[in-house]
Design goal:
The complex is a heterodimer of chains A (about 140) and B (about 425). Chain A is an alpha+beta fold. Chain A has helices spanning about 40-45, 50-55, 90-105; strands at about 5, 25-30, 60-65, 70-75, 80-85. In chain A, about 25% of the residues are buried. The chains are: A alpha+beta (about 140), B mainly alpha (about 425). Chain A: It comes from Pseudovirgaria hyperparasitica.
Chain lengths: ~140, ~425
């Protein structure tokens, strides 16, 4: 009988090593026809949204009215999270910036960037240092 | 009164998806030309200016409908489908293929996966219909998934056997399971952002549709009963004989025999409802996608897709080995290969009389060191060293590898260089 058995393990995804899957699935644009705070948003939707959508076909875009309220855009992410940004009184260019912000976000919560060491899942190329194999012996 | 939300689907979201499959294509059965009612005069992918967006967003033309109106519209849709399709009842579990070209979700999924433009949206929609949602084999993904299962098994096994020619059978099966097993494929589908939906013809294409076993305890019980039948039937063929391998699938699991499959079908038919777990449904989508890419875009595109999505995943094969008697295995291996019998030697040590001693032991065959490891006792270190020696034997990987599939095809100029074939694992 063979003496080697195997444990079952699932391979881990490394997004971007082979294929890259953008984490933003969908952006909802909500506007209002009547509120002045929607002026920039409405201008963005009519003038720049088609360019934005063509440049980023991997994101589903929906446009829907939100009467008598401030304009917002909501990003939906692969990890199930949502990010909503209120774009009231912003200009067309500022709205575009906010849309880019949603597009490039990972969907994770914003958190402080700590100076933690990077822990790699790959094996160390030089091998682990061992006192038993160090070249020089220290005499005490 | 509940009203449906008003949402615009804009034509520019379908840019680049103009390719239509040829007439008679079996992966996406529908009539041509497709209806363009919601997409304006320009049609799909046409250059769209400001006027077009304004026209799309002109809310006076949008329909704000009540529930009654919605049901009337759906009834009208069904009538239209009844005229187009020979047997409209077949479509009830899933949306008509003709609405695939109006689904922004599907177009976004197509772009997110960087699928080739030759891959039609209708076929992508079909890969998202599990047989439990729509039992008609013309509209569900079952047939595509059969092809995809074999392709995934072939590419994964080829990769593993060429790169690790000495892997023991059990480890090969486990590695295969790790790369293309159902749990991996299911995780992949979630990482691609696939959403689930209860089946129905009103569901927007782009959702994975299946009857979830998680939703109904009765269904789960039936599933278990059917699986028990399989286990009962396979228990008596577990012995390793001459046809041991032919009864197993790509992961080393038993194939249920035909009688068992018939019994299982009978059991599920009696209960009147078939269900699937989310893992099964997710895996069937990915398998069907591979089958469909192969049919529409060919071998090279399929291999590229496999490499970028599956081989790029990380699986540490060294960590899935589990040895029962490594020292014994190593001495059998040395005897088979004609090496000197392995001898363990202490290389260095510290703190022998302390709370935390460390011993470094190497196993040597003659002058050659086969493996080395540290342990808290002499015996542990010796065992670990034997494991290290065995792993370095089993995990040997040739520097230059020519995969058989890389030299396939007419007009392929690359030269076939035979790979190393190992006599096999150490059987004692």
């Amino acid at each position: 009988m063979p003496q080697v058995t195997a444990l079952r393990a699932i391979s881990k995804a490394q997004n971007g090593v082979g294929a890259f899957i953008i984490q933003c699935k969908r952006i909802d644009f909500h506007y209002c026809d009547w509120y002045g705070s929607s002026r920039g948003m409405n201008s963005f939707i009519t003038n720049e949204l088609s360019k934005f959508g063509k440049a980023h076909p991997n994101i589903e875009i929906t446009v829907s009215p939100r009467p008598n309220k401030h304009p917002i855009m909501v990003g939906h992410y692969i990890n199930g999270h949502q990010k909503a940004i209120c774009v009231r009184n912003l200009t067309k260019e500022q709205v575009h910036q906010k849309a880019d912000l949603l597009r490039m976000a990972s969907g994770e919560k914003n958190r402080k960037v700590m100076r933690k060491p990077v822990i790699s899942t790959n094996e160390n190329v030089r091998g682990m240092w061992s006192p038993f194999h160090a070249g020089r012996k220290y005499e005490i | 009164m509940i009203t449906a939300p008003m949402i615009a689907v804009l034509a520019f979201q379908f840019a680049g998806l103009e390719y239509h499959p040829p007439e008679g294509d079996q992966t996406s059965i529908h009539k041509y030309p497709l209806s363009t009612q919601n997409l304006g005069e320009n049609g799909y992918g046409a250059t769209q200016g400001q006027e077009q967006v304004e026209q799309d967003l002109d809310r006076s033309q949008w329909v704000q409908e009540t529930n009654e109106e919605y049901h009337e519209r759906k009834a009208a849709d069904r009538d239209r489908i009844a005229k187009e399709f020979a047997d409209p009842d077949l479509l009830l579990g899933s949306p008509s293929p003709s609405v695939a070209r109006q689904s922004a979700k599907l177009a976004a999924l197509h772009a997110r996966l960087s699928l080739p433009t030759r891959f039609p949206l209708e076929t992508l929609a079909r890969t998202l219909v599990h047989p439990t949602a729509n039992p008609s084999s013309e509209y569900n993904n079952e047939s595509l998934a059969v092809l995809g299962t074999d392709l995934l098994a072939y590419y994964a096994a080829e990769h593993l056997l060429c790169h690790y020619p000495r892997l023991p059978m059990s480890v090969l099966f486990a590695a295969q399971w790790g790369y293309v097993g159902p749990h991996t494929l299911s995780a992949m589908a979630s990482e691609w952002g696939i959403e689930h939906a209860y089946p129905g013809d009103e569901v927007e294409p782009g959702h994975l549709m299946f009857m979830s076993a998680d939703q109904s305890p009765d269904a789960l019980r039936m599933q278990e009963q059917a699986e028990n039948l399989v286990l009962k039937g396979t228990a008596n063929v577990l012995k390793r004989g001459a046809n041991w391998l032919s009864q197993r699938d790509q992961f080393g699991e038993m194939h249920p025999s035909k009688e068992i499959l018939d019994q299982m079908a009978e059991a599920t038919k009696q209960e009147g409802l078939r269900t699937a777990t989310a893992i099964d449904a997710n895996a069937s989508f990915i398998r069907a996608l591979f089958g469909a890419i192969y049919l529409h875009c060919g071998r090279i595109a399929t291999q590229r897709f496999f490499t970028s999505h599956l081989l790029s995943r990380q699986l540490d094969i060294a960590s899935i080995f589990e040895f029962k008697k490594p020292k014994y295995d190593l001495s059998r291996l040395c005897a088979r290969e004609g090496f000197d019998p392995p001898v363990a030697r202490l290389i260095s040590e510290t703190g022998r009389l302390s709370r935390h001693p460390v011993f470094v032991v190497g196993v040597f065959s003659g002058e050659d060191e086969l493996g080395q490891a540290a342990g808290a006792s002499l015996d542990e270190a010796r065992t670990r060293a034997a494991v290290a020696a065995l792993k370095s034997w089993y995990l040997y990987s040739p520097m230059e590898v020519t995969k058989p599939s890389s030299v396939e095809g007419a007009g392929n100029k690359s030269k076939w260089i035979p790979n190393m074939v190992d006599p096999g694992e150490v059987v004692t």
